[in-house]
Design a protein that fits this description.
Layout lengths: L2 H4 L2 H14 L4 H12 L7
Length: 45
């Protein structure tokens, strides 16, 4: 099985936060995009 299928979202989320903050965006904006893409709410993330 490919590594991407066994990687948990919790392990990559901090990397996404670091990247968006480096690019001048906020964690709240990242959460909004992830919620829109996945259909999860804040509690589900």
């Amino acid at each position: 099985m490919h590594r991407i299928f066994t990687t948990s979202f919790a392990s990559v989320y901090p990397h996404y936060v670091n990247k968006v903050e480096r690019k001048g965006r906020t964690k709240a904006e990242l959460d909004q995009v992830i919620e829109w893409l996945t259909g999860y709410d804040e509690a589900g993330l």
